[in-house]
Amino acid sequence: MGYLAAVLLEHGHTVELVDVRDGPEQIAARVGTGQPLVVGFSLIFQFFLPQFRAVAVALRAAGVRSHFTIGGHYASLCPDELLAQLPELDSVTRSKGSTPCWDWWRPPPPANPGPRSRDWPTTWKGRWTGR
Fold first, then answer.
1. Where are the domains of the chain?
2. Which of 3, 35, 37, 16 is nearest to 107 (CA)?
């Protein structure tokens, strides 16, 4: 998450890092007031999967409509299993997440108003229509 935060900060976005150990209710209260564009989860060890699920459920119950994505070692190795285990997710970011995520969030160049490239190493579930 630190690398992704650095890329987003470099391009003028506001970033807030929250520790999953703060608990679902506290995180939902903190995140729900801001309605961020995206909520990213960094799952290094699958041991934390139940805590991440509890946070995602609490955020959705609090009305957070942000795009939920997850990355990390387990996400890169087992994206399909992760999507099945966390149905609240909108996407799984595999491999090095900072470059694909910036490619995804940046505005299209003025000379080319068409759709942006989606050739980064990401597995998608569903379609995200927010911006």
1. 2-124
2. 37
